[in-house]
Amino acid sequence: QVQLQQWGAGLLKPSETLSLTCAVYGGSFSGYYWSWIRQPPGKGLEWIGEINHSGSTNYNPSLKSRVTISVDTSKNQFSLKLSSVTAADTAVYYCARGVVVVVPAAPYYYYMDVWGKGTTVTVSS
Amino acid sequence: DIQLTQSPSFLSASVGDRVTITCRASQGISSYLAWYQQKPGKAPKLLIYAASTLQSGVPSRFSGSGSGTEFTLTISSLQPEDFATYYCQQLNSYPRRWTFGQGTKVEIK
Fold it and tell me: Which residue among A53, A81, A94, B85 has the highest number of C-beta atoms inside a 10 angstrom radius?
């Protein structure tokens, strides 16, 4: 059974860089896209970006200038860095496994089926 | 970018009620979206993918349907453990971007 374990600093000052890591246990690292999603207090889910095992990335345009997602396949881990944080970046950050299924001559479908437990990150001076 | 709008944003219902949540896309989705359940302090949990396929282990009282611009999540008989917030999600291929609806909170009447 695949599990995601995430960790990283929970309290940051404005202008610092947020850094989180997610480790994948019990399953293959290749063949999936690995995402970061965040949820500000009392608000909805916002996708930050994703990476696959070969290091190909996609980012949310609203955060792209500050986000870097990287992968360490030797450890089955992927990481998030978000620079120049402000109070608006205060949120619970989740890592998740993304699955995309392409069926010939049919609509593709997708989902995020495995999630980390979340890391609360607070930005405060 | 495709926007997903869920309705209602909030609903109050009783145990045993039939509940329907709608997710509308700002333009036609040439794919099938997913639904998640999130309880306070917990990560979202996948309920349905490909618009109508139940994830393994999810009770059969949950069902999904729809295509194009309108999708629905139905709970046939609301149970106490179903009080939670529900999100729809779609994946845009080009540019590749995952998007969530704003959420629907289901509370006890």
Answer: A94
